[in-house]
């Protein structure tokens, strides 16, 4: 084997050298040939390490296609294979290149290659794709073999899930089940791996295998919440196997273990009720819980269980009456009171809620929490005067901090119900009494800006007492004012405070930022020098440097500032203090892209040669030197050696050094080494957040989605304020179909458990995402005909949903599910509740989380499984027939392609397919005038049937920039205006004519320094005007214009 590998490495060197010679000889006149050759070698080296690396293949094909040299690329690979016929990787690449180029003969090459290299997984996978595209029944067996042969866990996991999907589609489930059995029998699994396998198998209804995986998880030991999930999934599997009695016993055992206030108890109770096979059995179960309650009328557990059974039986009104009655009989029961409040909130019956709260306050008039809740209900009912009186009563005797918190909470509620008119006076009145409460002032400023009262905001800012305000509130308000372009107000607030406390370092830095925004050069320079004298620690120096660089950059004086600052440090000064060394390294780290790396490297190496360095200082200098070397392609070998040595000398930090070494391998296109190393790294042992962020890009590029989620989770733990990483993690969880984990993470963010401070608008967005996750899970249950599982989910949604519009679709979905299950009385009750919601909210349409809508009249009269008789139907709408609509013309794209979007202008219709080909069509007669060819995206899976998607849209790992409702219509990197259209292709923004499809101009999309991402085809053109096109790069969270 080692001899074969050596031969292949030699073959690679010969192959690359030969390709360079051929390219230079064939195109000696091209000035860009050196760049062409370098890119060619870079992409082919990456493909040598991983022949299925889609991004490298796409880039290679496009490189040769643009140069009109694709035939040369095919010929080069063919020549190489003739010389080295035992190189399966080169054959794999050649086959894909020939497919992309539309060359014939690739199938013969594929067949012969597979016969010669039957144990090479990438070839088997390409064979699967080819057979699958033809509908060949052998495709499933070939994919199963590819899974067996693949050694990389992440890719094997991806192929396994594809096998589970396709085996069900093709009626070959035994093939997938055999694979799953092999995994269970052959591999040692952790608890997390066992649970992941259980979720995967249940997703595709391999119930018996899922039970074995759950047994493995139990053997590994589970925390209390994990054991709850195991029991629930076990019951779900038993139902799937039609062992309903056993499932009921499992759920009964689980309910006995859980307390009456467990957050999943209602969901479990709903599952328990749905497990029974007939209406009679369901009635017996309800009567059983009723008897338990009657025998123990003072037992909180018995009361709540009976109420939950009634709720699961769609008897919410009965449950509410029961709990209200018991709350009066057991006035000290917090559990029952909380459950009543929850039900009344959900019922959206404010009058009943008001009555309950008033009754409770008659018993406990000192209960501020209930009175404050009553205030909100009275505002909702329009009883503003009563609400105000209750609010004054509730806040009497509170400290300023407490009353401020309640005012903020109340005004946010009022804004959520569109009562800004009621919120604004409260805030204004409070600020007149407490002008130093800048946190409250910010809330009022937001309201007034939203109402367009900008002049009033400027007057409000002048009235504030920033001299006495809390420093953190000053900083928060100033930053908000800057974001709203109220720079003068921000300056006034800071100046007033700094006149009183001139030594405040944080606010002094903020003033530099404000002065920079105002363009006051002299004041910026004066305050920068003033604040530098106060940097008595490396941490303060770093903060000062960051703010100063931003201000000088805005004044376009950054280079001269850095030059002056660098001159303050000289290695010729002899021994440095640790403080000075830290500051120097901070300067270098903060200004890497602006300073001369070569000079810094030389200075660092010179300093490291000094034997008198202290060990900590030497380590810091080595670390910084490494930070420079690892990004220089010509120094990758030196960086790898240094990282290896550091990992040996510092075992505790070794995982971090190993991760950085993997990143160096990736940058130098040693893909196989990078993949092998990064798969071994445990994210929980890494503390370098920047390295983790960069690693996420690699993992997504390699399709190592499970590990990418783990790395993002670690970033969230280390820097919870990094909202972007939370967003990416949630996007990946949705992509992988891990909806339970998605909801767990989202719920934690909403509740503030993750240490993230979110704006109310962000919380609202997360609530929307939570509901969309439930909808995706419901869609999956509907599509797989697991209707019973929808009711527990709907019960869980009730805890999350408040707005009337969302409750409407929940109640309608419950009616549909119950009707399909044959539970007609409960379905009728759900239909009545739905009709009541519609009437109370005066709703005209039913809006679902995926963006679709249904007319309320159609939803109300919905008949399941039958068509209404002609007597029941109103007159049909026939007006649209009067227009005599006729098909004028049709246009069909080539077989194997799908239309992604189209644009209609005055004389042209542009059609874009999923190969990024653009077709120019005459709008009146439908004649094809021109075609701009695109490229096959080999890195993206094709042909996955829509019925196996989690939801009506298919989210990729980086589609977080679009909301789920928009994703189905989002086409990356395409926009059009009257005479031009724009495409993002291979990191460039290209402008074409809509008249003839000719290229008008092309511009490279800039990538921020040190980024390992690319400005590739996943960029979004978000604005096009007569003078400008703006491109958003989602992976880098950057924009270019």
Characterization of this structure:
The protein is mainly alpha-helical and 1041 residues long. Among the domains are: 222-324, Alpha Horseshoe (Serine Threonine Protein Phosphatase 5, Tetratricopeptide repeat); 419-499, no CATH class; 503-568 and 580-595; 899-1040, Beta Barrel (Lipocalin). It is built from 48 helices and 13 strands. A four-stranded antiparallel β-sheet has the order 3-4-5-6, with no helix packed on it. A four-stranded antiparallel β-sheet has the order 7-8-9-10, with no helix packed on it. A hairpin with a 2-residue loop joins strand 8 and strand 9 (988-993). Helix 5 packs antiparallel against helix 6 (106-116), helix 20 packs antiparallel against helix 21 and helix 33 packs parallel to helix 35 (615-629). The chain is globular.
Summarize the structure.
By secondary structure, the chain is mainly α. Residues 1-32, 865-885, 936-971 and 1009-1017 have low confidence and may be disordered.
Q: What are the SSEs and their pairings?
A:
Layout: H1 2-26, H2 33-49, H3 54-66, H4 70-83, H5 88-101, H6 106-116, H7 121-134, H8 139-149, H9 153-169, H10 173-186, H11 191-203, H12 207-220, H13 224-240, H14 244-257, H15 265-275, H16 279-295, H17 300-312, H18 316-329, H19 334-347, H20 350-363, H21 368-380, H22 384-395, H23 400-416, H24 420-433, H25 438-450, H26 454-463, H27 471-483, H28 487-500, H29 505-518, H30 521-532, H31 538-554, H32 558-566, H33 578-590, H34 597-608, H35 615-629, H36 636-649, H37 654-667, H38 671-678, H39 689-701, H40 705-718, H41 723-736, H42 739-751, H43 760-783, H44 790-800, H45 804-820, H46 824-841, E1 845-847, E2 853-855, H47 856-860, E3 899-904, E4 908-913, E5 918-922, E6 928-932, H48 964-967, E7 974-976, E8 980-985, E9 988-993, E10 999-1004, E11 1020-1024, E12 1029-1033, E13 1038-1040
Antiparallel strand pairs: 1-2, 3-4, 4-5, 5-6, 7-8, 8-9, 9-10, 11-12, 12-13
């Amino acid at each position: 084997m080692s001899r074969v590998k050596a031969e292949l490495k030699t073959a690679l060197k010969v192959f690359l050298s030969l390709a360079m010679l051929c390219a230079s000889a064939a195109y000696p006149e091209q000035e860009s040939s050196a760049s062409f050759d370098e890119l060619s070698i870079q992409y082919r080296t990456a493909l040598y390490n991983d022949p299925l690396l889609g991004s490298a293949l796409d880039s290679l094909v496009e490189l040769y296609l643009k140069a009109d040299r694709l035939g040369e690329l095919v010929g080069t690979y063919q020549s190489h294979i003739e010389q080295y016929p035992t190189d399966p990787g080169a054959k794999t690449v050649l086959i894909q290149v020939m497919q992309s180029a539309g060359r014939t003969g690739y199938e013969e090459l594929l067949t012969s290659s597979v016969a010669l290299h039957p144990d090479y997984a990438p070839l088997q996978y390409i064979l699967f794709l080819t057979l699958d595209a033809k509908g060949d029944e052998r495709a499933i067996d070939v994919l199963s073999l590819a899974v067996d042969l693949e050694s990389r866990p992440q890719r094997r996991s991806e192929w396994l899930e594809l096998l589970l999907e396709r085996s069900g589609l093709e009626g070959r489930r035994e093939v997938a089940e055999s694979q799953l059995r092999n995994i269970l029998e052959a591999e040692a699994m952790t608890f997390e791996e066992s649970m992941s396998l259980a979720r995967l198998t249940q997703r595709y209804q391999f119930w018996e295998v899922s039970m074995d995986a759950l047994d493995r998880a139990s053997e590994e030991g589970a925390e209390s919440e994990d054991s709850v999930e195991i029991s629930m999934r076990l019951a779900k599997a038993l139902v799937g196997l039609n062992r309903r009695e056993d499932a009921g016993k499992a759920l009964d055992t689980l309910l006995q273990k859980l307390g009456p206030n467990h957050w999943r108890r209602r969901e479990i109770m709903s599952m328990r009720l749905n497990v029974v096979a007939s209406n009679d059995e369901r009635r017996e179960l309800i009567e059983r819980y009723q008897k338990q309650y009657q025998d123990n009328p003072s037992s909180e557990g018995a009361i709540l269980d009976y109420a939950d059974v009634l709720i699961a039986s769609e008897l919410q009104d009965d449950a509410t009456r029961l709990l209200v009655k018991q709350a009066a009989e057991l006035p000290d029961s917090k559990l029952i009171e909380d459950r009543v409040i929850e039900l009344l909130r959900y019922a959206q019956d404010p009058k009943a809620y008001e009555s309950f709260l008033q009754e409770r306050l008659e018993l406990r008039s000192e209960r501020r929490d209930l009175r404050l809740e009553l205030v909100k209900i009275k505002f909702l009912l329009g009883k503003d005067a009563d609400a105000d009186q209750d609010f004054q009563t509730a806040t009497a005797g509170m400290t300023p901090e407490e009353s401020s918190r309640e005012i903020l909470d109340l005004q946010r509620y009022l804004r959520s119900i569109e009562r800004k008119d009621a919120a604004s006076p409260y805030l204004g009145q409070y600020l007149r009494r407490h002008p130093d409460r800048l946190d409250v002032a910010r809330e009022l400023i937001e309201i007034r800006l939203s109402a367009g009262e900008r002049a009033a905001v400027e007057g409000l800012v002048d009235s504030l007492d920033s001299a006495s305000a809390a420093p953190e509130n000053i900083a928060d308000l100033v930053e908000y004012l800057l974001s709203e372009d109220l720079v003068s107000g921000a300056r006034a607030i800071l100046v007033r405070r700094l006149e009183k406390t001139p030594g405040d370092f944080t606010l002094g830095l903020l003033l530099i930022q404000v002065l920079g925004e105002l363009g006051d050069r002299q004041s910026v320079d004066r305050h920068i020098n003033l604040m530098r004298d106060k940097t008595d620690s490396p941490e303060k120096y770093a903060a000062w440097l960051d703010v100063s660089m931003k201000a000088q950059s805005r004044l376009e004086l950054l280079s001269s500032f850095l030059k002056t600052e660098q001159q303050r440090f000289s290695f010729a000064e002899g021994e440095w203090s640790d403080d000075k060394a830290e500051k120097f390294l901070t300067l270098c780290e903060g200004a890497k892209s602006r300073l001369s790396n070569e000079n810094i490297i030389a200075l660092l190496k010179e300093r490291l040669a000094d034997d008198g360095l202290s060990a900590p200082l030497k380590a810091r200098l080595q670390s910084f030197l490494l930070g420079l070397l690892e990004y220089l392609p010509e120094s990758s070998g030196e960086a790898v050696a240094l990282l290896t040595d550091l990992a040996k000398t510092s075992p505790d930090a070794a995982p971090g050094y190993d991760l950085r070494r993997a990143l160096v391998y990736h940058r130098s296109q040693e893909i196989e080494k990078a993949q092998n190393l990064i798969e071994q790294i445990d994210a929980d042992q890494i503390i370098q957040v920047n390295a983790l962020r960069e690693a996420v890009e690699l993992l997504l590029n390699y399709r190592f989605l499970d590990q990418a989620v783990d790395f993002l989770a670690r970033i969230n733990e280390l820097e919870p304020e990094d909202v972007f990483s939370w967003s990416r993690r949630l996007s990946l969880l949705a992509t992988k179909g891990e909806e339970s984990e998605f909801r767990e993470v989202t719920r934690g963010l909403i509740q503030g458990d993750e240490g993230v401070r979110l704006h109310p608008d962000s919380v609202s967005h997360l609530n929307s995402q939570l509901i969309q996750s439930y909808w995706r899970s419901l869609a999956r249950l509907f599509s797989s005909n697991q209707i019973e599982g929808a009711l527990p989910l709907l019960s869980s949604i009730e805890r999350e949903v408040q707005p009337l519009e969302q409750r409407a679709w929940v109640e309608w979905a419950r009616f549909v599910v119950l009707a399909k299950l044959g539970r007609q009385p409960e379905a009728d009750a759900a239909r009545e509740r739905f009709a009541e919601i519609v009437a109370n909210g005066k709703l005209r349409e039913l809006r679902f989380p995926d963006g679709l809508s249904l007319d309320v009249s159609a939803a109300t009269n919905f008949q399941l499984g039958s068509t209404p008789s002609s007597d029941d139907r109103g007159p049909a709408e026939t007006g649209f027939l009067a227009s005599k609509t006729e098909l004028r013309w049709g246009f069909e794209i080539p077989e194997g392609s799908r239309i992604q979007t189209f644009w209609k202008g005055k004389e042209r219709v542009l059609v874009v397919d999923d190969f990024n080909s653009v077709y120019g069509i005459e709008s009146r007669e439908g004649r094809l005038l021109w075609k701009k060819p695109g490229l096959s995206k080999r890195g993206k899976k094709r042909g996955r049937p829509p019925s196996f998607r989690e939801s009506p849209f298919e989210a990729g790992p980086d589609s977080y920039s679009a909301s789920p409702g928009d994703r189905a219509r989002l086409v990356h990197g395409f926009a059009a205006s009257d005479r031009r259209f724009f495409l993002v292709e291979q990191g460039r923004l290209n402008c074409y004519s809509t008249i003839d499809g000719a290229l008008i101009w092309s511009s490279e999309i800039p990538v921020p320094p040190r980024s390992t991402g690319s400005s590739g085809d996943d960029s979004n053109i978000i604005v096009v005007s007569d003078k400008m096109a703006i491109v958003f790069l989602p992976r880098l969270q950057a924009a270019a214009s």
